[in-house]
Amino acid sequence: MTPQLSPLSLNQLTRDLWGQFDPAAIAQLAPLADDQCYRPKFYKAPAGSQEVMDFNTYAAFGLKITSGSLIYGFYLPCAPAVVPVNSVPPEFLVQITDSSLTRKLFDDPVSSLFLANYKPTMQSNFLVQAGSFPRLLCAPYPVVGDGVFMIEFWETSGVQQRVELVIGVLEVCPA
Questions:
Q1: How many percent of the chain have pLDDT more than 70?
Q2: 37-172: CATH, from 2.60.120, 3.30.110, 2.40.128, 1.20.930
């Protein structure tokens, strides 16, 4: 019997150190790495044509995720091209509601600062210009019912900006 190793644990900035959250969450996802029933997929909200928001506005968007999938975390782009290096994402609040269960993922709308997990690498600083690692949930969130989610954004920076949230999902493969 071989121990399970998650591809997420190969990130050189994520080490299994005492008191750190990422390694514990990665250990939960490790058995799914070689599971043929799931494949990684990314969902983006809002759509590309709707991601520029005026200052102090509210917008709600629907998102359909394949039922049976597992949501494992969020990717939130930062602006490392700004000198000095800026590891802060765009400022906004977000609330995600599972329409099938009428359940909110967060008690109150959460700041984008709590969804960012910017861990730059040499390569990501020069090529990708985005965060290299997701903000993992404490446990994978199962998508049930019709898989429809309502994603609400509140722009809070006071300036017009581009707002986007990428959701990391392990999508169930067809039989």
A1: 71
A2: 2.60.120
